[in-house]
Amino acid sequence: MNVTLEPFEPRDLELLKRWLSSPHVRPWYPDPARDMDIATVQPPGGFHALIAVGGTPVGYLRWRYVDRDTLDELGLKEIPAESVDIDILIGEASQTAKGAGPEALELLAQQLLADSSVPMLGLTTSIRNVRAQSAFAKAGFSILLQYDPAGDGLRHLMVRDLREERSSASRPAGA
């Protein structure tokens, strides 16, 4: 599969709006107006991209560096500051469960692995969203804990520890 991350442009907002209203996306992104606001005005330290397969946009990926105050407000004291919070959706229903999500997450992880200041990647998903959990696990994420941010319902916090990956990569083979 030829997955790439492409720049997200203002003209892509209508595509994202359509995806957010899709029946397979709506249960997991129940506040499309909020998500459109975030896409329109990225928060400080925030970035986003289109996920493309063979050059055709099929999904959306956004990420941001998270400061200590934000993590503490969420009760996530075990997550190091400057970790990266990720949101992802595959908007084209015909492209779900085909591997584009895990590949996009891997592309982002490899990009962020090069930034030694990023200790960890994290994302949350409803405990009911088994398909997302499986996709995230394929991209090297594992469940760290369950929590209920702001009364939104029970979620899994899934993480990928880049510190461990960097440490493993720096060890000689067989050590």
Q: What would the CATH topology be?
A: Aminopeptidase
Query: How would you sum up the global shape?
Result: globular
The fraction of residues in strands falls at 25-35%
Instruction: Tell me how many strands there are.
Output: 7
**CATH superfamily heading:** Gcn5-related N-acetyltransferase (GNAT)
The helix/strand class is alpha+beta
Q: How many discrete structural domains?
A: 1
Q: How big is the Rg?
A: 16 Å
Architecture overview:
The chain is α+β, with helices and mostly antiparallel strands and 175 residues long. Helices cover 31% and strands 30% of the residues. It has a single domain, classed as Gcn5-related N-acetyltransferase (GNAT) (Aminopeptidase). The protein has helices spanning 13-20, 32-40, 68-73, 100-113, 130-138, 162-170, and strands at 3-7, 46-53, 56-66, 83-90, 120-126, 142-147, 155-161. The protein has a 7-stranded mixed beta sheet.
